[in-house]
Amino acid sequence: MAEPVHRRLAIPGQPPEADRLLGMIAALTSEIAVLRERLDTVERLSGLSAEAIDHFVPDAAAQAGRDALRRRLIDKIFAPVRDALARAAGEQR
Fold first, then answer.
1. Residue ranges of the domains in the chain?
2. CB burial of residue 81 (10 Å; 0-12, 13-18, 19+)
3. Is the pLDDT of residue 3 over 70?
């Protein structure tokens, strides 16, 4: 698998809000691409159908793991907004 790019370059003249939004979209796109690749691999290696995967019900431990993954993903995607708000709050002091 290719090494991920960790920081994209800012677009000159772009307002900070637009740059943050583009950063969020880039992060989401990257996550979706990786997930699609991994799902394709699982389907090919396991012989499970997409229907079987769609109807899977996780047990409590698996659900807890999924919840933790979801929280990390949300934190990653919204980091630009959270960081901007933290900077703005620091500047107002």
1. 18-91
2. middle
3. no
Tens-digit pLDDT profile for residues 33-73: 999 999 889 889 998 888 888 899 999 999 999 999 999 98
pTM above 0.90, yes or no: no
CB contact at 8 A, 34 and 73? no
Residue pair 16/84 in contact (Cβ under 8 Å)? The answer is: yes
Q: What is the DSSP string of 9-37?
A: PPPTT--HHHHHHHHHHHHHHHHHHHHHH
Task: Encode pLDDT of 80-92 as tens digits.
Answer: 888 888 888 887 7
Amino acid at 62: A
Give the C-alpha separation, 31 to 16, whole Å: 23
Which two three-digit tokens encode residue 12?
């000159």
As a whole number of angstroms, the distance between CA 36 and CA 41 comes to 9
